[in-house]
Amino acid sequence: GSLWLYWQTFTPACEAQDLMLANRAPISGAFEQADGTLSAVATVKFPSEAFETDTAKHYATNGNPIALPSKEAKSAFDACFGR
To answer: Does residue 61 have a pLDDT over 70?
Structure first.
């Protein structure tokens, strides 16, 4: 099987110092190809989901860095927002 990766880009939220932007951080994805390289990066969209058009909602992912078990990831996120 192939390995699929997805991630959210928090750079705009960090630059703006805006936690609401973090809720809507763009989701990207790529998959491992037969030669071990990653495919072209694709933007992940869910057109029929309300969070795509309602800015009061957040993307439903488990990629929230605050919830990651990695202390380094949480520390990096906290540093971004001056916590």
So the answer is: no
Longest dimension (CA), the chain: 42
CB contact burial 17-34 (16+ within 10 A = b; e otherwise): eeeebbbbbebeebeeee
**Helix (H/G/I), strand (E/B), else coil: 36:** coil
> Using only C-alpha atoms, what is the Rg of the chain?
14
Identify the pLDDT of residue 60. Answer: 58
Distance, in Å, from the CA atom of 40 to the CA atom of 3, rounded to the nearest integer, reads 14
Q: Measure Cα distances from 17 to 52, 62, 72 in Å.
A: 22, 22, 20
Task: Determine if the pTM surpasses 0.70.
Answer: no
Q: Is the pLDDT confidence value at 69 over 60?
A: no
